[in-house]
Amino acid sequence: MAYKLLTPGPLTTSDTVKQAMMIDHCTWDNDYKTITLDIRKRLLALAGVDGTDYTVVLMQGSGSFGVEAVLSSEIGPEDHLLICSNGAYGKRMVQMSERLGLKYTVYEVGDCEIPKASAIKKYLEHQEDITAIAMVHSETTSGILNELEEIAALAKENNQLFIVDAMSSFGGITIDVKALDIDFLISSSNKCIQGVPGFSFIIGKKAEIEQRKDYARSLSLDIYGQFKEMDKDGKWRFTSPTHTVLAFHQALIELEEEGGIKNRNLRYLANNQLLRTKMSDLGFEMVVKEHQGPFITSFYYPKSFPFEFDSFYYYLKERGFVIYPGKISELECFRIGNIGEIYPEDIEELIRIIAEYKEMLAA
Ligand SMILES: *Cc1c(COP(=O)(O)O)cnc(C)c1O
């Protein structure tokens, strides 16, 4: 049975995005290469940059492959990376850095707190050899939205290489990559652009990619190698996920038709506001009290009625909605995403079903 995904990706896509995949394309044909070039051009525009200083590298694999591509290609033997972490995705960057043998330091706060620029400043003062800062923008673990502007300003002031995992935020909120002077921003095909899974993309400074071209520790994830090939005529180095690419191109057109990031953000905000208000009316308490982002929300298991996650999950699924288990360790919670082809009327419908579930349990 088909259902709507209230998850942070893969998420519900439009019928027209799905239909775009009904073509089997070869990878070396001009029509196809043109699509890759157009995707890269559109992503630059969404990031508020032009092709003079920045470029877009598409990378096969899920979002994590894109993050690992950046860490393994751009952090050199002389670098010391400071990783800001307040959830599973910050921790994943730590795991990658450990595996890659990078020199790194972790600045970790709790899942419901945000990394502070003031604390980062102290790290930079005490460890003068820190050359790079990496952070997650929207921490999907909790739904918290980290303070990108302040940390970006600090990185700029100190001339640090600045890496942002904007996986679950890019396309859903305006990120002025140029003004923030971000060196590498990573996102993927199946989050706020509303495509299907299959590749990640890296918006990065050309000069840094050129300068750091010898650092790559992996052939497949080599950003410079991929950039050089792709920049010629739009051909990916190795087999690209053709159907995903076609779907993503359609998704970019639909983002523009919606009125760009500005309008998509308004829709996500409206979904999220409605969800939070109505869930709170039903007695569900939000886990994140401050800095809640507009993409996904964590709720505690309610105590006022006999709640059991699995039965709740299947009850909703049978009625057309799939939600997400919680990811914050030691907290009993679940998550509801509101991104993708989801509108306030879907949230209304979800709330109606949750109210019905609650009544059933109370009876
Ligand atoms: C989705 C996501 C990723 C990538 O996860 P994959 O499972 O590899 O696609 C990374 N960071 C954040 C913040 C995410 O939301």
Automatic annotation (TrEMBL):
Protein name, entry field: 2-aminoethylphosphonate--pyruvate transaminase
Domain Aminotransferase class V: 52-303
Quaternary state and interactors: Homodimer.
Annotated organism of origin: Candidatus Enterococcus clewellii
EC code(s) of this entry: 2.6.1.37
UniProt similarity note: Belongs to the class-V pyridoxal-phosphate-dependent aminotransferase family. PhnW subfamily.
Molecular function terms from GO: 2-aminoethylphosphonate-pyruvate transaminase activity
Sites of N6-(pyridoxal phosphate)lysine modification: K191
Top EC class, one word: transferase
Lineage: Bacteria, Bacillati, Bacillota, Bacilli, Lactobacillales
InterPro entries per record: Aminotrans_V_dom, NH2EtPonate_pyrv_transaminase, PyrdxlP-dep_Trfase, PyrdxlP-dep_Trfase_major, PyrdxlP-dep_Trfase_small, SP_NH2Trfase/AEP_transaminase
Gene encoding the protein: phnW
Catalytic activity line of the entry: (2-aminoethyl)phosphonate + pyruvate = phosphonoacetaldehyde + L-alanine
Summary of the function given for this chain in its UniProt record: Involved in phosphonate degradation.
